[in-house]
């Protein structure tokens, strides 16, 4: 598997730290050229490599860590995303449900990435917590995963485990996934819940 993080702000960098901690290769990209991102990327770890957006999206798993409406710009980078998994880490607090055609925000994002398998995840914690070591005494920090394609969730759960998190699958976006979606100015009840799963 190859991984890219699109968006190298607070969440993108937090996730880059998680990859670096486990020595897993990851590409990072934003609208800025790779040379502009390279010093920060290198400071996080030697396996965090800045690339252009076009080169980064060659990865088979792409984590979306851009401001919500920017997903549309990222999606335009390919006419078809077949064969790729998009992990949606964006949130939509304050966006009216009508603006999303009444859909959960990640289902709205999925429409833009034609052909991709979409999983919502890594969106429920503030960046500083997401950046911290997810392994603490007695347990692993929980990340919630949801999506309408169950087969797509399993490899993302594997990635979460490799990064040291404890993945908890919530099911479909409009079912368990609703717990980690903002709707209008209301956060889903699991957003910001920093939970740990004890080693069994
Ligand atoms: N901050 C948090 O604690 C937190 C927690 C959970 C979820 N989230 C969600 O995560 C997403 C990112 O939040 P953030 O706080 O990390 O934002 P941020 O610090 O503002 O970073 C956004 C990043 O996206 C890049 N970007 C913007 N438009 C882009 C485009 N069209 N193509 C490629 N890159 C683009 C920006 O870089 P350039 O300007 O160089 O393009 C920047 O690196 C948001 O949807 C937010 O709701 C945030």
Automatic annotation (TrEMBL):
Pfam families in the record: F420_oxidored
Species whose genome carries this gene: Kumtagia ephedrae
One Gene Ontology molecular-function label: cupric reductase (NADH) activity
Domain Pyrroline-5-carboxylate reductase catalytic N-terminal residues, every copy: 3-91
Alphabetized UniProt keyword annotations: Oxidoreductase
Example GO BP: copper ion import
Official protein name in the record: NADP oxidoreductase coenzyme
Keyword Oxidoreductase: yes
Entry annotated with the keyword Transmembrane: no
Any Gene Ontology CC annotation: plasma membrane
SUPFAM superfamilies: NAD(P)-binding Rossmann-fold domains
Cited Gene3D superfamilies: NAD(P)-binding Rossmann-like Domain
Signal peptide: none
């Amino acid at each position: 598997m190859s991984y890219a993080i699109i968006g190298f702000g607070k969440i993108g960098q937090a996730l880059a730290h998680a990859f670096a901690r486990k020595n897993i290769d990851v590409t990072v990209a934003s609208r800025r050229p790779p040379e502009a991102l390279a010093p920060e990327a290198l400071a996080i770890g030697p396996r965090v490599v800045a690339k252009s957006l076009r080169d980064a999206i060659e990865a088979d798993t792409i984590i979306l860590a851009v401001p919500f409406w920017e997903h549309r710009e990222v999606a335009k980078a390919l006419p078809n995303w077949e064969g790729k998994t998009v992990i949606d880490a964006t949130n939509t607090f304050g966006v009216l449900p009508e603006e999303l055609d009444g859909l959960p925000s990640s289902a709205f994002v999925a429409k833009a990435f034609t052909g991709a398998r979409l999983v919502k995840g890594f969106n429920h914690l503030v960046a500083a917590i997401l950046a911290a070591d997810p392994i603490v005494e007695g347990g692993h920090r929980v990340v919630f995963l949801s999506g309408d394609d169950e087969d797509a969730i399993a490899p993302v759960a594997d990635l979460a485990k490799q990064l040291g998190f404890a993945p908890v699958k919530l099911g479909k976006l409009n079912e368990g996934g609703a717990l980690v979606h903002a709707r209008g100015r209301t956060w889903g009840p699991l957003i910001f819940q920093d939970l740990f799963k004890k080693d069994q």
